[in-house]
Amino acid sequence: MSASQALRQKQAPIKDGYRSDPSSAVVTLKSTGSLDDHSITCKLSDGPAVKEAHRVAGLHQKAGGDDPAISGELCSGDMLLDALVACSGVTLKAVATALGIPIASGTVTAEGDLDFKGTLGVDRTAPVGMTGIRLEFAVKFGEREDGREVSEEEVEKLGKLTERYCVVLQTLVHKPTIAVRLAGSGGGKEGEGVSREVSHKSEF
After folding, report:
1. Count of the separate structural domains present in the chain
2. Which parts of this chain are annotated as the region Disordered (predicted)?
3. What's the half-sphere exposure (Cβ side, CA atoms, 13 Å) at 15?
4. What is the pLDDT of residues 49-60, one digit of tens each?
5. What range does the domain containing 70 cover?
6. Which of 80, 88, 98, 137 is deepest in the core (most CB within 10 A)?
7. Could you give the angle at which helices 152-165 and 76-99 cross, rounded to 10 degrees?
8. In this structure, is the dihedral angle defined by the CA atoms of residues 86, 40, 142 and 152, taken in order, positive or negative?
9. Which domain CATH number covers 109?
10. What are the CA-CA distances from residue 68 to residues 25, 73, 96, 149 (Å)?
């Protein structure tokens, strides 16, 4: 059996399930990170799939992938949320440090809603990609030497500046210009091979 036949065979019952029960294709992916009081970092919570020093991306189970706890393969959607959690967490700590706002500990959580009917081609009207992302910070403030509490105005400023200077968040909010190029050679073809190029315009 060829690789393409094996994949189709594996995905067929999954697609049939989504056709009979469309709601079963909708999932919420989640990523979490933690903040501490001694570094400008955000530690991502390692899921059961992270077994190696390097990360390998594979199909999500809802798209026919293997159990990540066994395969060690990560869903790229989870990795996207990981990037958002990591970037926003580090940005929050950097901004808080610059403003003199003490953070004792904290948790950063990102959730993304995804309908697998779209990426599997089960329903052409279903969106391909996340339709909603939620980012939440739960922070415990530390004590200041002068005893002053963190004010609502400071929290408002901390939130605004974190949003403004988080690279990944701003990339998601304002779609950048993306150039995609696919180039292929070999497979019996001679010369320069074949290629495809497309550009998606920016919203900046």
Report:
1. 1
2. 1-24, 184-204
3. 13
4. 444 434 677 767
5. 1-175
6. 88
7. 130
8. negative
9. 3.30.300.20
10. 18, 5, 36, 44
CB count within 10 Å of CB 130 equals 17
Q: How far apart are CA 88 and CA 111, in angstroms?
A: 14
pTM for the structure as a whole: 0.83
**Angstrom distances, CA of residue 34 to CA of 13, 45, 94, 156, 172:** 38, 7, 14, 21, 22
Q: What is the pLDDT of residues 148-198, one digit of tens each?
A: 999 999 999 999 999 999 999 999 999 888 898 888 877 666 666 677 888
Edge-to-edge strand list for the sheet holding 26-35: 43-44, 26-35, 103-115, 130-141
Q: For residue 202, tell me if it sits in a domain.
A: no
- Whether residue 155 is contained in a domain is answered as yes
How far apart (Å, rounded) are the C-alpha atoms in residues 28 and 71? Answer: 21
Distance CA 161, CA 101 (A): 13
Give the CA dihedral 95, 98, 100, 104, nearest 10 degrees: 50
* Residue pair 36/90 in contact by the 8 Å Cβ criterion: no
193: CB partners within 8 A, 6+ apart: 183, 184, 185, 186
| Class of residue 146 by CB neighbours under 10 A (exposed 0-12, middle 13-18, buried 19+) | exposed
Residue 27 falls inside a structural domain: yes
Q: How far is CA 35 from the centre of its chain?
A: 18
Please tell me the distance from the alpha carbon of residue 43 to that of residue 35, in angstroms, as a whole number.
7
Q: How far apart are CA 77 and CA 84, in angstroms?
A: 11
Q: What is the C-alpha separation between 117 and 132, in angstroms, rounded?
A: 16
